[in-house]
Batch of 2 targets.
Target 1
Amino acid sequence: MKRRHFLATTGLSLGLALTVSTVAWAENAKLKIGFVGVTSGPAAAWGISNQRSMETRAAWLNELGGVDIGGTVYDVEIVPFDDQKDPKRAIAGMEKMAQEGIHYVVGPNVDDGAAAVRPVAEQNGIMYFPYAFPKELYTPPASNAILGMVANYQSGPAIYKYLMENKGVKKVAFIAGNESDPLSQRDSGAAAARELGLEVVSDSVTYQMDTTDFTPVLLPVIQAAPDLLVLSGVSPANAPQLIRSARELGYAGLISTETAQDAAVLAEGAGELANGFISVGGASTPELASDAMREFVDRYTKMFGEYNDESNTKVYALEYIIETLKANPAAIDNVEEFKKTMDTFEAPNPFMVGDAKLTYVGTTSFGQKRQVSVPLVVNEFKDGKFETLFVAQVD
Amino acid sequence: MEQILANGLYLGAQYALIALGLTLIFSLMNVLNFAHGQMYVFGGFVTYTVVAQLGLPFIVGLIASAVVLAVMGALIEKFLFRPVIRKSKRDESTMLLAAGIAFFLDAVILLLFGEKQRGVPKIVNGVLNWDMRIIMPYDRILIAVLAVALIVGFILFMQYSRTGRAMRALAQDRMAAQLMGVDVDRYSMIGFALGAMLAGLVGGLLVTITGINLGMGGPTSVKAFLMIMIGGAGVISGAIAGGFILGMMESVGLTVLAAYGDITYLVIFASLMVFLAIRPQGLMGKPWG
C-alpha cells in the first residue's frame, strides 16, 4: 500500500510540475519599465498619478495579451521607486533601475531630481522622461532625457497671449512657492509676459510650501491690482487655498497656472470660488477624449478608487516608450537605437479624437526632438469640471 | 496694519491650540511627540470623511475627529509609550518611538485617505470687510472664536477638574503625585489622549479653511515645537503665548518682508536662535502646576 501510495503521489507531483512548467513556458516575457518619482509627502499626488497611470495602462495591455515587439510578446511590468522629492533618493532610484537592467524610466517629477539622475542615466544607457523643465536636460550634448509634458515656457506665452487678446489682460502678477521648480517657472513666466508687452506688477512674493494661511502672503500681491494672477508651478494641494484666499481678499481678476490640476480637489478646496481658474490639462475633456481615454479613466477609477485629472497628461509617457520600441525592436536594450527612431517616429494617438499623432517634438525649444508631443489643452474650471478653453500644439 | 494684526490673531489662535496638545504630552510624560502633526492630519481627514463623504453635519465630523484621536492617543500611550518608558531610561527611546509612529501614521493616512488634497465646503459664507481695513471671511472668524473657546475650556478643565488637577500634579512631580495616590498610568493615558484629541480637533477645524493633505504632518510638528520653544516646554501659558507670538511674527513678516522674498521664516528662526541663546528655557520655561 505504501509503495502504491508513493507511486501515486509521485505521479501526481510530476503531473502538477509539468502543468505548472507548461503554464510558465506559456507566460510572456517581461518588459520592465521604471518609474522614479515622488509618491509620498506634500507632492505625492504628482508621482502617484504618474505611477498609477502607468500601472493602469500596463494592466490593460497585459489583459489584452501583452505587447508585440519584434515578434516577441511582452507583459509590461512597472518598477516604481519613491524618490521622496529628494535628489539623493532620485539617484538611488535610477541606480536601482540600472541594476535591474531597465533602459526606460518615467520621471523624476521635479527639476533638481531630474538634473541629479542625468549622469546615472547617461552612464547606464537609460532613457528617462522627466516632468521637469530645465532646458539643459534636453538640449545637446544631453540626449537621454525626454520632456514628458508641455513646459511652462511653452504654455505660458500661449495662455498670456490668449488672455491679452480675449480678456483684455494688461497687468500680471506672479506668486510662487519657495522651491526650485515654482521659482524657475515664475522667472520664465515673468520674462515671457514682459516680452509680450504685459506689465508685471508683482513677481517677488513667494510662500513656504507648507503654508496653511495664504491671506497674509497674498495681501501685497492683490494690492498691486493685477488683471491676471499667475500661480507659478503651483501644486494641486496649494492651488485651491491660494484661489480661495485671493477671492476672499476681494480679487476679481483672472487666475491661471501652467501646471496640471485636479477638478475634484479644486471643487472641494475652493468650490465656486475656483470658477474661471485656468490651468493646463490633457485630453479628458468630453470634446477631446477618445473612447480609449474614457476606458483608461474607467479602468484607473476601478483600480484605485478615484481618478486624478493630472493623469490626463501622464498617460502618455508609457505609450510613447512602447510604441517607439514597437517601431524599432532593436531599441529594447539599446537606447541609441531608440534615439535614432525618435526623429522619424509617428503613431496614432489613441487617447484623442480625430487624427492626432504621437510624435517627438522640441526642436524649437531644445534644438533636437526631446519632448513628447502632447496636446497643449488649456482648461477653465467651471462648476466642478474642466472645460476646454483652447488647444494648441508645441514644437 | 489692522489687517496684519487680524491675520496674526487668527493664525495665533490656531497655532496655540496645536501647541497645547504637544506641550501637555511633554509635561506629563517628558515625551517629544514627533507624531503630533500626523495626528492633526488624521483628525482633518476624519472630519473630511464624515462631512464630505458621508454628508453629515460639520459638528459631527468635529466630534468624530476628537473621539477617534482620543482613542488613538490612549492606545498609543498604553501599548507603545508606556512599555518603552517602563523598560528604557533613555529619553531617545521615546523620541525614536514617536518618530516611528509619525512615519507609520503617514503610511496609514496614504492608504486610508489617498494622496490628494482634501477639503470640506465652507461652513459659513461671506466676508467681513471693515472699510477695506480688515478683510476677514466669516468662517475664519468662527474658527478663531472656536479655537479660543477650546483654549479657554482646556485651561478651565486643567484648573478646576479633578482629572486636570491630577495631571498638573503629575507634571509637577511624578514621584510625589504617585506617593499621594495619583494613578500615574491612568492619568498619563488620559493626558496623551487629551493631547491627541486637541491635535485632531484643530485638524477638524482647519480642514474647512486650509484643507488637508498627506504632507502637512511634518511641517505642523515643526511649527508646534517652535511655539513651545518660544513659550517654554511643558507650560500651558507658554504654549498659548508661543502660538500667538509665532502667528503675529508670521503675519508681520509676510507683509513687511514680502518685497525681499521668502525670508520671513529665516528671520523667525534667526530670532529664535538668538532668543534661545539668551533664554534657553523659553518665556515661561518651568514645569507648570
Target 2
Amino acid sequence: MSSSTLQHLVNQPYQHGFVTEIETEVVPKGLSEEVIRLISEKKNEPEWLLEFRLSSYRHWLTMEDPSWAKVNHPPIDFQEIIYFAQPKPKKELASLDEVDPELLRTFEKLGVPLHEQKIMAGVAVDVIFDSVSVTTTYKAKLAEVGIIFCSLSEAVKDHPELVKQYLGSVVPPSDNFYAALNSAVFTEGSFCFIPKGVKCPMDLSTYFRINTEGSGQFERTLIIAEEGASVSYLEGCTAPQFDTNQLHAAVVELVALDNADIKYSTVQNWYAGDENGVGGIYNFVTKRGLCKGVNARISWTQVETGSAITWKYPSCVLLGDNSVGEFYSVALTNHLQQADTGTKMVHIGRNTKSTIVSKGISAGRSSNSYRGLVKIGARATGSRNYSQCDSMLIGDKCSANTYPTVEVQNESSIVEHEASTSRIGEDQMFLFASRGIGQEEAVSMIINGFCRDVFMHLPLEFAVEATKLLGLKLEGSVG
Amino acid sequence: MKLLEVRGLKASVGGVSILKGVDLEIDRGEVHAIMGLNGSGKSTLSKVLAGHPAYTVTGGEVLFEGKNLFELEPEERARAGLFLAFQYPVEVPGVSNSAFLRLAYNTVQASRGGEELDPLEFDDLVREKIKVVEMDPAFLERSVNEGFSGGEKKRNEILQMALLEPKVAILDETDSGLDIDALRIVANGVNSLKSADNAIVMVTHYQRLLNYIVPDYVHVMDSGRIVKTGDKGLALELEERGYEWVRAAA
C-alpha cells in the first residue's frame, strides 16, 4: 500500500456539497445594536429577550477572541458576517406539503427524508434550515405526554416563563466570547421540555444545515428534564460546500433536575474545507449540562468529523449529590482540519461521578487536540472521575495533543487518567491484506475498533451512520 | 504446472539486498521446510511471497499456478490461495477476533464464488474449525491477538489457515515461542489441514517442528540463496553437524 493510495482514500470530496436555491431574506451584514433590534423585531420577541441580547452584546464588546486553543485562523471580521438569514416563506406552512419542494429535495439528497422513514424509525425531527424552523413533526404526539419539543422562537412565544427561567442559566452570556456573541444574536434553535416523571417515548432529533453563503449560524438549544424525566436527543449536521469560511457559534444548555437523565448525541459532518484548507466551517460551540438535582445524569456522545476548526468542550456541572456526567467523543481530523475539543467535569455535589472517553484520529496534515478539565471541589467528597484519552495517527504529517487538567480539593475523591497514542501501522494493514481484506475495509475495521467504546453509547441509527462516515472520511488516508 | 515456482528471486529491504537469487519449486501435496540461520533470508522470502510493502523485488520471478505472483496485490494473493502465518502476529485493539475472521472468510469466499456467511452461520463454522487448534472459543470474542500468549497467537494463525483453506501455506517460524504441548497442538492442526491439493512451507530454525510435521523436502538457506536441498534426513544431519557444515560444503 503506498501512501498515495492512502491519501486517495482519505481525500474523498465532500458528498453533501450542494447549494439549494431558495430565496433568502437577509439582514444587512455586520453587528450593532440596530441589527440586534432588527433581529428581535423580525422575530416579534418580548422586551426581556431584547434586553438579554443587548446586555450580552454590550458584554461581548468588552471581551476578546480567545487565543488559548491550539488552532490557527486569520482574525474573524465580525462586521463581515450576516447575522440573520431566513428562507422567505411563500405562505404560512400548515403541513409538510406546503414546504418549499426545493427544500424537501435538499433533505432527500442528504438522506433525511422527513416523513415515513423517520416515522418508522420513531424519530421526531425538528428541522432547522438556515435559521428558521420549517416544520416540526410529532409535536402533537409528544404533547400528549406533556413534552414540549419546538423551535426556540416558538417556545419564546408559547412558553415564555420556561425560557426566561432557564435561558442562560447554564451558560451565562458572560461565559466566554462566543457564548456572549451567540446570546446577542442567536436566531434559532430547539427547545425541549420533559415534565416531571416523563420518559420521552422516542429519540428527539434535529438536523442542522447551513445554507446561505456567508451567513453565520447562531443556534441556541435548551433542554430541560424535570424530576425523574428522561430524554435522548440527537443532533446531526451537514453543510454545503463553500469557499468562504462560515462561523458557527452555537450554545447548548441542558438542565437535569432530581433523578433526571439527558443523553445528547451528535454526529457532526460540516464542510471541512478542501484538501488545501480553503473554506470550511469554524465551529466554536459552547455546550454545557447542569446536573442540578440529586442523582441526575447527563451524557454527551459526539462524533466530530467535519468543520475546518472545531472548538468545543461539552461539559457537565455536577451540582446535585450523586449526579453523573459522561463524555464519549470521537474526533477525526484530516487534511488541514484543526480540532481542539474535550470536556470539563466540574464536581460540586458529594459522591458525584464522571467518565471521559476521548478518541482522536488524525490524518493528513491535521491537528487534533484533547483538552480536558476535571475539577473536584472541596465539598464534593467521595467523588470519582475516570478519563481515557486515546489518539490514533494515520500518516506522519498530522499531530495529536492531549492537555488534561486535574484539580482535586478534597482527600476522599479518586481520579484516574489513562492515555495512549497509536498509529495504524504497516504491519496491521499487512495482516488484513494477507487475509484477503482490502485497504478500505481494513481501515474501517481498525478505526471502528478504536472507536468502539464511544460508538456503543450512540443510538443504533447514529452508530451505523457514524461508522460509515468515518470510513468515508478516511478513504485514501492509510497506506 | 507446478503450484509455486520461484526463479532467481532477488529482493531488498531499505536498499539492503537480502535475497540473492532463490530457486524453489513447490507442488501440490508437498511439505517443504526452509531452514537456515538468522539473517539467511528465510523470513524475507516468506514476506516477499506474501507481498509485504517494505520489501522490494529486484530480480527473478515467481509463478503461482503459472501466473506472475507479483502482478497481484497482497490481498489478491491471499484470495488466490497464498497464506502466510506470521512469526509475530500483530494485535488489533478493539476489533473482535470473530468479526475479523468472518470478514477475512467472507472476502476470500466471495472472490472464489463461494457462499458468504452471516454472523450466526459463521459462528457455527468457526466453532468447528477452532477444534483443529484446540483453542478456547472465548478467544473469538477478544480483540485480535490482544493479550494473547505467544502460543495463543500462533494457534489463532492456524485457525485463520483452517478457515481460508489456502493452496500454499507458509508458516513463518510458527514453532518459535511454543512450549512442547502447544507445539504438538499446532502441528496436529497443520497436519489435519494437509491434503493432496495443497502445499505447506515451514520456515524454521529447528529440527523440533519437523518431528511433528514431516517434510518431503528440506532446503537450507544461506546468504539469500538456497544452498542445499534434501529430504528429512538433511534436517537431522543439520541438527547434528550445524549450519557451518552446509556452509563449508556449499
